[in-house]
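Re: beginner question about structure tokens

> Can someone show what the tokenized structure looks like for a real chain? I only ever see the sequence side.

Sure, here's an example I had lying around. Input first:
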Amino acid sequence: MDDHKSPQPARRPTMSDVARAAGVSPMTVSRALRGDPTAAPATRARIVAIADELGYVLDASAAALSSRRSGFIAVTLPSLNNANFADTLRGVTEGLAATPLQILLGYTDYDIGEEERLIASLLRRQPEAIVVTGGAHTPRARRLLAGAAIPVVEMWDLPADPIGHVVGFSNAEASALMVRRLHEKGYRAMGFLGVATSRDTRGGDRLRGFRRALGEIGLSAHRVVEVGAPPVTMPQGAQAMGRMLETFPDVDVVLCVSDLSAMGALHEAHARGLRMPQQVAVAGFGDFDLAAYTLPALTTINVDAREIGRQVARVVLGAVGPHPAHPAPQRLTTTIRIVERDSA
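And the corresponding structure tokens:
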């Protein structure tokens, strides 16, 4: 008979353990670990050090029940692989760094049906605010957001019918700006590599801006090839560029819905022995870090994705709490600029 007993798991340290070690009340420990300014700095530092030594972590759910605050800001993004959205998330994180607020993140995979499910799930966690990417949502998602009774921020777009706060830019105007600049440089037979608009309204807006600007100039906007469903990859961009060159051999510049599709387009043009920009030019959207290192370096549109995140954080911080600094909905238009390089 084996008398060896299995080791018992160590008992988790409690707030009372920290309080006894620090010689203070559990309420003082709670205030100190929540960053409450009423706790003296020296006392707070001593309590934090003791909690670290004991391995104690504040139970955020219990704190939320007592304070009626969750400490979370919910954020939805279309993709975790897109460098622009990653930069926006970084900007939000930086903007909230000096606060106790944490980000509860979900990604929609460019699917508004998935966005609806995520919004319902995130709202059950009782966030103090919710940030969603874009201004197109299902009817139920709009109802959920409008009835959430917390600040709502739509970013990366300028919706005509905003739910609450807005931090973004006009994707249509960004494309139109590029069209007008390319026209100034002498391009006339312009093509567009776009996405399935049912999955990406921002991409659809960029195509709309392309067509509108060409119409205003008096040029044809018929040279359009669909890249595929987002998130768009470089191979998809290369395949679409091949179809563009074969279907519209007179095209002199190709605007792409994203930098990744533009990088694929550059690769395909190279593979076909075309000189760029002499025989065909290429422009992207997003100004990814790699855009400056392609051959030729990619002309593109910079939307300062990180600054979008910082502005979102400022709006959130001004809107949360019992006495918000910005109770009325804010509408902040962020900057867009053309970055001219050798590809166009």
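Each token stands for a local structural state, so reading them left to right follows the chain. The chain is about 40% helix and 15% strand.
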